[in-house]
Amino acid sequence: VSKYLPEFKPKNDTKTEITLRMLMAHRSGLMREPPLGSYFDNKPPDLKGTITSLNDLPLIYAPKERLKYSNAAIAVVGRVLE
After folding, report:
1. Which class for 66: exposed (0-12), middle (13-18), buried (19 or more C-beta within 10 A)?
2. Going by fewer Cβ within 10 Å, which terminus of the chain is more open, N or C?
């Protein structure tokens, strides 16, 4: 994903790069809700702000390790498509 979206830089200590397929399949290791731009925000930022709020945050688990629903992952896919 980093080649399409250089502003997306979560803390990934593994050697496995997060792919679009992993994001869409909820196997990226990203947290469920982004710190900014979740449905809990009264005034959500733009999509770029949502994506950059994930920077330097650790993954919940290694990419491809398991399935966990993530609105944050779908936001990343949306930003790539944007």
Report:
1. exposed
2. C
